[in-house]
Design brief:
Helix content is about 50%, strand content about 15%. It is α/β, with parallel strands linked by helices and about 425 residues long. The strands form two sheets. It has a six-stranded parallel β-sheet with strand order 3-2-1-4-5-6, with helices on both faces. Helix 14 links the parallel strand 10 and strand 11. Helix 6 crosses helix 8 and helix 7 crosses helix 9. The chain is globular.
């Protein structure tokens, strides 16, 4: 069978799709994947055929918009008209700008495919292409989304669902012109309801790529409905890196460090960040391992109890550390939960705050907004999570997390079954 995979975003968005693609390829299927240009090499290194999907991610959304998104304005002006529209328009304008380009790529990608598998960005455009070819659609969810999702953690449940409904309605109306143009080009009738409703009506698969232990109340609710939203656990390839041996050697040469990981988005001030970490860990008598990822720390000086590296294999590094401090990305959160060590989430974007809230609910760590973090607050938060009870609870949760290989196999099984059901019709 032929599987078409389309994923737009950072490596954290792309790696889960690539992990499933690699497994499908191993099983003898034909797999082609569309990703942003800067991740072509990454996907090809996994043995997958890759084509360019849209512009480079850094030029798509302004990093300052993502870090300093005006969701506070959304809440403050929730019952007005202009406030929510301003916030949502800022988020969807880049989507509209590249919609036709992404549609053309999706149409070429899915030609002759038995199934189209996509992430959440441009999910609506992918749904139209799947409808055009009359093939099944499967979407990958890194966290609960939709009217019953968890995007607005600071609101009461009922109000959060209302806010999410308003958000989806606004997003659909602000992208409707671009979507109507796409559907005309595909020869499809004009849509009269949002894509989320059409996706549900076609009984498309919505793979929840995280563990149900993280959202037990949601798992119980969905279990009573249907099987369209299966939990498979977080999808990762657990790739080794060139620096893993050096990192392991440094960790083994002293007491287990606290690991700081910042994800793909660069931090505003690398020098100030390293100084804050160094000072806090010095006060606590701890060593610190800083995983740079998307931030350039090359010219930043630091003291002996600090080591700065690039990308590392979280599966190997995290379990060897005393605690993990990170940005709250879905994949990084899963890696820290699987490692069985306490976690501090310093989030910048709203989806990251979801994982921070769950870490706190699971009592394996705590959460704070990165922009509100100071040396004093970092010391306070680290002291809290280094309490032995957090370590005990973290080990308990780790034992309940799905193993990475099992997660990938489950997702591949689901896609195979869905594609095969289309062939049998």
């Amino acid at each position: 069978m032929k599987f078409a995979l389309a994923c737009y975003g950072t490596r954290g968005d792309v790696e889960p799709c690539a992990a499933v693609g690699r497994e499908l390829l191993r099983r003898g299927h034909e797999v082609v994947m569309a990703v942003p240009p800067e991740l072509i090499g990454f996907v090809e290194s996994a043995g997958l055929e890759a084509i360019v999907y849209g512009p480079e991610v850094e030029s798509f959304w302004n990093a300052d918009f993502l870090r300093n998104s005006t969701w506070t304005d959304f809440f403050r002006n929730f019952w007005t008209v202009r406030g929510p529209i301003k916030v949502v328009r800022g988020a969807v304008e880049p989507l509209v700008q590249h919609w036709a380009e992404m549609s053309a790529t999706l149409k070429s990608l899915a030609d002759g495919a038995d199934l189209l598998f996509t992430g959440l960005i441009y999910r609506d455009a992918a749904a139209n292409v799947a409808e055009y070819y009359n093939i099944p659609l499967a979407t990958l969810h890194h966290f609960p989304i939709g009217a019953r999702g968890r995007l607005f953690q600071i609101l009461p449940s009922a109000l959060a669902r209302s806010a999410m409904t308003v958000l989806q309605w606004l997003a659909w109306h602000l992208t409707k012109k671009a979507e109507d143009a796409q559907r005309r080009e595909l020869g499809l009738p004009k849509a009269t309801v949002p894509a989320t409703q059409r996706i549900a009506e076609r009984r498309s698969l919505e793979i929840q790529a995280y563990d149900e232990v993280c959202f037990p109340e949601l798992a119980a609710e969905w279990a009573q409905q249907d099987d369209r939203r299966p939990f498979v656990g977080t999808l990762t390839m657990e790739l080794t890196t060139a620096g893993d041996d050096e990192v392991a050697s440094w960790i083994g040469a002293g007491t287990p460090p606290i690991c700081f990981s910042f994800g793909s988005l660069p931090v505003d001030s690398p020098t100030a960040t390293v100084e804050m970490i160094s000072s806090a860990c010095d006060q606590l008598g701890e060593r610190a391992l800083i995983c740079a990822a998307g931030t350039d720390f090359t010219d930043v000086s630091h003291r002996d109890h600090i080591k700065v590296v690039g990308t590392v294999n979280y599966a190997e590094t995290f379990p060897a550390c005393r605690a993990i401090v990170h940005h709250g990305g879905a994949g990084t959160t899963a890696a820290s939960l699987r490692a069985g060590v306490p976690t501090l989430v310093l989030w910048s974007t709203e989806d990251q705050s979801i994982w921070g809230a769950q870490v706190e609910k699971l009592k394996v760590g705590t959460v704070r907004r990165f922009s509100a973090t100071t040396r004093e607050s970092l010391v306070e938060d680290l002291r809290q999570i280094l309490d032995p009870e957090y370590g005990t609870r973290a080990r308990e949760i780790a034992a309940r997390m799905t193993k990475p290989a099992d997660s990938v196999a489950s997702a591949a099984d689901l896609l195979q079954k869905l594609a095969q059901s289309r062939r049998l019709v």
